[in-house]
Amino acid sequence: MKNMSYAEHVAQTILGQLGSQRFVVMTGAKNLAYFDDNGECGLCFQLPSYFAKNNINIVRIKLTFADDYTVTFYSKQGSRIAQISEHEGIYCDQLQWLFTRETGLYTRL
After folding, report:
1. How far does Cα 68 stand from its chain's mean position?
2. Is 67 helix (H, G, I), strand (E, B) or coil?
3. Longest alpha-carbon distance in the chain
4. Number of domains in the chain
5. In a domain, 109, yes or no
6. Whether the predicted model's global pTM rises above the 0.90 cut
7. 8 A C-beta contact, residue 40 and residue 65
8. Whole-angstrom distance, CA of residue 95 vs CA of residue 74
9. 63 in a domain, yes or no?
């Protein structure tokens, strides 16, 4: 078994809460990466351009010290990155619902 860092483990858990490979296939998510912001870890990924509502094509999900998530949606057009929305205090059972509401993309059939 591979020895994962805490940040990798958090990212894998978030992906699992979104729907794992089914989520990747349904949404076209790519370039999945984990990050660590001074102990608050998470998952960041890209969506196909012009595929989601409001041209959202970057999603960042961060596990906070309060054991909930901050989810931020961005639109990157050329070299310009605009934050579309940010949601704090999101629990794991709200991730799929929030993703669908903000992007218009379903995470499951």
Report:
1. 13
2. coil
3. 40
4. 1
5. no
6. yes
7. yes
8. 16
9. yes
